[in-house]
Amino acid sequence: MTYLAWRTLRYRRLAFIATFAAVFLGVALIVACGGLMETGIRLAVPPQRLAAADVVVSGKQTYGVPKKDPQDTKDIKSVPLAERYWIDSGLVGKIQAVPGVERAIAEASFAATVVRNGVPVIVGTQSLGHDWESAALGSYRLDGQPPAQPGQVVLDRAVARQAQIKVGDRVEVAVGGGVSTFQVTGLAGARDEMSHSALFFSGGDVQRFDPHAGSADAIGVMAKPGTDLDALRGRIEKTLNDRKLVVLTGDDRGVAEFPEAVGGRAQLVPLAGVFAGMTVFVSIFVVASTLGLSVQQRQKEVALLRSIGATPRQIRKMIRREALVVAVGAAILGCIPGALLGPLIHWLVAEAGVISPVVEFHQGVVPYLIGPAVGIFAALVASYVASRRPSKTRPTEGIAEAAVQRKWVTWPRVVFSFLFFAGGIVLIIVTGVALRGPVASATAGPAVMCWAIAIALISPGLTRLLAAMLSVPVRAFFGLSGYLGTINIRTRSVRVAAAVTPIMLAVSVALANFYLQTTQNEAAERYYSDNLRADVVLSSATGGFPADTVEKLRSAPGVEDASAYVTSAGWINKPYDGSHVESPWPLQGVTAASAASITGVRTIEGNLADLRGDTVALPEVAGKNLNVGIGDQITLRLGDRSAVDLRVVALYPAKEGYETIMLPAELLAAHSTTGLTRQILVTAAPGTDRDKLAASLREKVGGNPGTLIGERDTIATFAERTKTQAWVNYLLVALVAGYTMISVANTLIVATAGRRRELGMQRLIGATRRQALEMLSIEAGMITIIGVVLGTIASIATLLPFSAVVLGRPFPSGSVFIYLAVVAGAAVLAFAATLLPGHRVMLTRPAEAAVAVD
């Protein structure tokens, strides 16, 4: 059987090239997804500003949310914090006393931006101010003198070069919500490239401008020469003995500089896992479809082997070895594009904002082991499925039905199809009854897979049924060519189903995921920001606005009202709230005097005008679930881990699953990373021209450089995370759908090339090349229509319940052009993969083609 397997590979090259391509591309995608997952798990962030510190002490950027029992400290869910968690700078003395520590320095950062001619000068993603003492933690070289007293500053050399500033000059700096003038005493140049611009101030200015003075981002530790860093880390951990602190070494040190990287892990790991799983599922289907068609085309050959004494076991062994030989080579070579595709996807994901660009991509040995293993496993599963029926067929029956296979119904197909249909129905019920808001999408992936598998298992029967329905109009419109095409589709329904199935799979996966994302985006926009009434939005590019800016804007001509606007996320600690374990509550900070007019919220109890000091306005459903009302107190854990006791002053209705907690803007801003208000919402007085209003506002904020004036679509909301994830979802779904579409081409090319004998016979009895190509075109069109119809049915079964839950209507949101693009992609591939090999077959002389081996 091994000899026969090798001989088959030699003379059936096209079929096995198709199988090779399917395994090759599948392994490449799995290796790439494995690299993304490893990157998220390892979270290697090389330090920049803290590169000279051997050990870094920082706050843990995650919060443990109790899952069920608030007293259970073990059964918790670790969720990233929305803001930076600051630590007590007084820990420096405690750390300094640890054996092996030569020096410990507190590192604090705050928004500070050089302004030149009224324009902010930023090199990198943002500009931050620091205490000069912390410059020792980085690789900075100073030209000039350090800032010894208030009013002095050392500039980043790159910033000074761009702003054309030299030592001794005076420079304006936007800091602390205002603009101050400083004398430049020196320029600091870093040996390595930095992601942020750095400005260094004296200790007195840091106390004056840092909103979180007295706290530190991190504490850098220089070890004495010869000290074992792992042992030193252990001693520091034992000395501090605080679960809210982490002691970092190596590439982990960068997390203290870039805490947003921790939030990226929470998104990247599950995202990579979901799409790796989807790729595994699709690859098994694709390889099974391609290999199954190849075995179907060899049914006469298998029947002849059976008739001369080959046992079913030997037939299965032969097919398995053929698949194994092809899969091993494809799996090994598939690692090469996987190694290139992984870094590319990581770069795109970082550009989209899902993960910080400073996170290094890691693709170790594990993805290169898992990817080929999955590819080989998919080929073995496919060979088992493809060889099962031919190996059991009696020799005489096999020869009789070799030309046209009609039998496809088996008990395993029926049973599993029923089970997957039942699973899809159960998921519809769960989505409609038990899930609300964004979490309703949790059942979407499994649902579309259940429906796709169920339809694929009975696709030969559905293909025959739909072909019969299409035959009348096709014959009426295309005449003889239509008659031949419909006859071929109906009589070859089993083989045609092998081409229909990947089209159905690609269409269902693409439509379900694209429209789920567009629907979720609309829902998030509608319920998180539609209640915010803003004709003009002011945003600060230099950290934030002074506290009196809102009052200044209220007096501007054409302004009806204005409110500070701050966003964050947090958890309700007391009373215990189990509704937001997986993700935090969205928090919105607004100005009390303008809260009602800016938000448009009509309270059912209390008044938003009372939203001052330590107060909170809760969604009505939260009040009912927690059994709290007006005047009651709750404890809210804010985005920086701070716990604050708040008095409930208002309850208001909100869409279930998209509720937001409202707080005073000044309270929420004080617990944000910048400590300042970064956006202000303005409503226009009736009849006011927007351009005139914008000009009026620009005049009022002329003293705040870096102020951007935009429309309401620039409002920062909790839905921004959904938008970011959407872009990445589109990318990864496009990759999986593209892989599936390639398999469509593989299958159709093999199917068409395997019909040389049939097409040669048609031409011998008088058919012209044009008539044969017309017949193939009709078949390609019908295959496309059947695949698109079945894929649409599978996606609709997923989209309808989801849309009903999140939008209150059964129709998903999204452009019809998404549907047209998916259909067009399927059609183009189907026609190209049918007509191009068909045209090549036509180049063979009819007499030679008529006696060729299929």
TrEMBL record:
<keyword id="KW-1003">Cell membrane</keyword>
<feature type="transmembrane region" description="Helical">
    <location>
        <begin position="365"/>
        <end position="386"/>
    </location>
</feature>
<feature type="transmembrane region" description="Helical">
    <location>
        <begin position="414"/>
        <end position="434"/>
    </location>
</feature>
<dbReference type="GO" id="GO:0044874">
    <property type="term" value="P:lipoprotein localization to outer membrane"/>
</dbReference>
<dbReference type="Pfam" id="PF12704">
    <property type="entry name" value="MacB_PCD"/>
</dbReference>
<keyword id="KW-0472">Membrane</keyword>
<feature type="domain" description="MacB-like periplasmic core">
    <location>
        <begin position="515"/>
        <end position="699"/>
    </location>
</feature>
<feature type="domain" description="ABC3 transporter permease C-terminal">
    <location>
        <begin position="274"/>
        <end position="393"/>
    </location>
</feature>
<dbReference type="Pfam" id="PF02687">
    <property type="entry name" value="FtsX"/>
</dbReference>
<feature type="transmembrane region" description="Helical">
    <location>
        <begin position="268"/>
        <end position="291"/>
    </location>
</feature>
<dbReference type="InterPro" id="IPR003838">
    <property type="entry name" value="ABC3_permease_C"/>
</dbReference>
<dbReference type="GO" id="GO:0098797">
    <property type="term" value="C:plasma membrane protein complex"/>
</dbReference>
<dbReference type="InterPro" id="IPR051447">
    <property type="entry name" value="Lipoprotein-release_system"/>
</dbReference>
<feature type="transmembrane region" description="Helical">
    <location>
        <begin position="493"/>
        <end position="516"/>
    </location>
</feature>
<comment type="similarity">
    <text>Belongs to the ABC-4 integral membrane protein family. LolC/E subfamily.</text>
</comment>
<dbReference type="InterPro" id="IPR025857">
    <property type="entry name" value="MacB_PCD"/>
</dbReference>
<keyword id="KW-0812">Transmembrane</keyword>
<feature type="transmembrane region" description="Helical">
    <location>
        <begin position="727"/>
        <end position="751"/>
    </location>
</feature>
<feature type="transmembrane region" description="Helical">
    <location>
        <begin position="323"/>
        <end position="345"/>
    </location>
</feature>
<feature type="domain" description="ABC3 transporter permease C-terminal">
    <location>
        <begin position="731"/>
        <end position="837"/>
    </location>
</feature>
<feature type="domain" description="MacB-like periplasmic core">
    <location>
        <begin position="18"/>
        <end position="238"/>
    </location>
</feature>
<feature type="transmembrane region" description="Helical">
    <location>
        <begin position="816"/>
        <end position="836"/>
    </location>
</feature>
<feature type="transmembrane region" description="Helical">
    <location>
        <begin position="446"/>
        <end position="472"/>
    </location>
</feature>
<keyword id="KW-1133">Transmembrane helix</keyword>
<feature type="transmembrane region" description="Helical">
    <location>
        <begin position="772"/>
        <end position="796"/>
    </location>
</feature>
<protein>
    <submittedName>
        <fullName>Putative ABC transport system permease protein</fullName>
    </submittedName>
</protein>
